[in-house]
Amino acid sequence: MPFLGQDWRSPGWSWIKTEDGWKRCESCSQKLERENNHCNISHSIILNSEDGEIFNNEEHEYASKKRKKDHFRNDTTTQSFYREKWIYVHKESTKERHGYCTLGEAFNRLDFSSAIQDIRRFNYVVKLLQLIAKSQLTSLSGVAQKNYFNILDKIVQKVLDDHHNPRLIKDLLQDLSSTLCILIRGVGKSVLVGNINIWICRLETILAWQQQLQDLQMTKQVNNGLTLSDLPLHMLNNILYRFSDGWDIITLGQVTPTLYMLSEDRQLWKKLCQYHFAEKQFCRHLILSEKGHIEWKLMYFALQKHYPAKEQYGDTLHFCRHCSILFWKDSGHPCTAADPDSCFTPVSPQHFIDLFKF
User: Fold this and answer.
1) What is the CATH number of the domain that holds 257?
2) For 194, phi and psi rounded to 5 degrees?
3) 3-state SS of the chain?
4) Same domain for 254 and 333
5) Are residues 112 and 210 in the same domain?
6) N or C: which end of the chain has fewer CB within 10 A?
7) How many domains does the chain have?
8) pTM of the model
9) pLDDT of residue 78
10) Contact partners, residue 120, CB within 8 Å, separation at least 6
């Protein structure tokens, strides 16, 4: 017996099941269109005459969700989004949790795209990207690689727009381009996730970014109000003593002759050396002037070549020892400890990398 119904694959038409197959019934379709312009027929009454299965609303809902999920996966410009800004760091399988957490998974989950918009976290994220570029780039999955370069693109565009700390980004791009050159030349000797042509395109993009940063010109702002040069000497000196990077002191010293004089203060560089390095390290790299005075400025850069400087960030990721969860402190996490604050530990960029070295 022929079956009359509406095919969900061709909305607006009715179909007749005959011995020769399905045939379109135009008269029924016109009637249905007059009754309802949108042909809103309940999916629960559409039956399959052969096996009696019901194509119900739940199946349509499942199909709709699947289409949205496939569309989301195919969108190459969108970073994976997660509502929670924390991740459970587990290094082995348990009955409760299968598998383990990878560096790429953590990189996807911790919302670095928003973090770079926060001036307190900007340097932290850049340093983390630099460490990944040096040694962990091949550890990232395809999705994590896409997120990595999307975030890097946002960082470069931000620096080009607001001129904030271009030197830091230049160092990052230099390390990344060096790593990519080595990986591309040694194809087959190392595990490189993705097509080689994609990596070549990424290298070309990095070289273009480097050229844009090289051509970056700082625009002189016209301001008739109070400027940095108008501040008293003791206030300018206090500003210089707040810097933890020697290159920042040198850069600021190039602004005016007064700032240059203050930036050459021996006591300033002594404090900087004492902040970053131990006294035992001073003895191994002692530099004296002709008059027998210690050249603290030269010592700082000499020590920097041999020992890692102390890192200082406005905000960092934190690790909860009780819950084994990595999170941004402002976002928090569902901690089950009686005294959560006592379980939190700041995580440096290198510590972040070490958490995923199994």
Assistant:
1) 1.20.1280.50
2) 110, 165
3) CCCEEECCCCCCCEEEEECCEEEEEHHHHHHHHHHCCCCCCCHHHCECCCCCCECCHHHHHHHHHHHHHHHHHHCCCCCCCCCCCEEECCCCCCCCCCCCCCHHHHHHHCCHHHHCCCHHHHHHHHHHHHHHHHHHHHHCCHHHHHHHHHHHHHHHHHHHHHCCCHHHHHHHHHHHHHHHHHHHHCECCECCCCCHHHHHHHHHHHHHHHHHHHCCCCCCCCCCCCCHHHCCHHHHHHHHHCCCCHHHHHHHHCCCHHHHHHHCCHHHHHHHHHHHCCHHHHHHCCCECCCCCECHHHHHHHHHHHCCCCCCCCCCEEEECCCCEEEECCCCCCCCCCCHHHHEEEECHHHHHHCCCC
4) no
5) yes
6) N
7) 3
8) 0.65
9) 42
10) 313, 314, 315
Question: Average pLDDT, whole number, for the chain?
Answer: 76
Q: Taking each helix axis from N to C terminus, what angle separates 266-276 and 296-306, rounded to the nearest 10 degrees?
A: 20
pLDDT at 52 over 50: no
What residue type is assigned to position 133 of the chain? A
Cα atoms in the Cβ-side hemisphere of radius 13 Å centred on 274: 7
CA 105 – CA 86 distance, rounded (Å): 11
pLDDT per position as a tens digit, 176-189: 999 988 888 876 66
Decide: 15 and 6 in contact? Cβ < 8 Å. yes
Cβ–Cβ under 8 Å, residues 4 and 12: no
Domain-located, residue 79:
no
Domain boundary among 189, 215, 241: 215
More confident residue, 63 or 117: 117
Higher pLDDT, 301 or 220: 301
Same domain, 203 and 279: no
Q: Is residue 266 part of a domain?
A: yes
Enclosing domain of residue 117: 103-215
Is 298 inside a domain boundary? yes
- Half-sphere exposure in the Cβ direction for 300 (13 Å, CA): 21
Does the residue 19 lie in any domain? no
Same structural domain for residues 193 and 293? no
Q: Which pLDDT band, with edges at 50, 70 and 90, does 70 fall under? A: low
